[in-house]
Specification:
Length: 199
């Protein structure tokens, strides 16, 4: 089985590795475009091109007191982030190279924490229950079933039925027979005479 897997393993084609090389070179160069002040003091204060580029955007906040941090804070944040990355590398090395059985032991011992982290704190499920499902219910039963089908379609269809029914009544009145028209004129005249006589 391992021989079959090794047979299929191969290097990515040039069309994939070349863009990655360009991106890697760009990230190395881009890192020196914005050299932090705390490192710049040891390098003869080279110009921070990235900061200069963003000056029109951040000019007002940078002039205020709250916008400036001390070089000590900047250095501390840099060292802290690098330290966190190194600790992560050491923990991964311990877990997967030195002691591969350790992750399984921790998973068994801290089962609740493992399940919570594995399910990403159930954020997707909570979002689905709190936001997505209510929106679907409102959309389906209020906006679609009631507002669209019952109210709007009901008004449009009722208007059509009313006009069709009225048209059917008037179609029977307009039969084309002269005797029928004379009869309706007589009925109308009698109605007017009765109305005038009793009013």
């Amino acid at each position: 089985m391992a021989g079959d897997v090794e047979h299929h393993v191969h290097e990515s084609p040039r069309s994939m590795t070349l863009p990655l090389m360009v991106l890697a070179a760009g990230s190395v160069v881009a890192g020196w475009v914005g050299i932090p002040h705390v490192m710049g003091q040891y390098l003869g204060h080279p110009p921070n091109a990235f900061e200069r580029f963003l000056e029109p955007v951040f000019e007002h906040p940078l002039k205020s007191e709250a916008g400036h941090g001390t070089e000590g804070l900047e250095g501390g944040l840099m060292l802290g982030s690098v330290g966190i990355g190194l600790v992560g590398l050491l923990v991964a090395r311990t877990f997967y190279l030195k002691n591969p059985a350790l992750p399984e032991k921790l998973k068994t011992r801290f089962r609740a924490l493992y399940i919570t982290l594995l399910n990403k704190y159930w954020v997707d499920e909570i979002y689905d229950d709190v936001i997505i499902k209510p929106v679907k219910i409102i959309s389906t039963y209020i906006l679609w079933k009631f507002l669209d089908e019952i109210l709007i379609d009901g008004i449009v269809n009722s208007t059509g039925h009313l006009i069709r029914g009225a048209g059917g009544v008037f179609r029977k009145l307009q039969s084309g027979y002269t005797r029928s028209y004379a009869g309706w004129i007589l009925v109308g005249a009698v109605f007017i005479i009765v109305y005038i006589s009793f009013s």
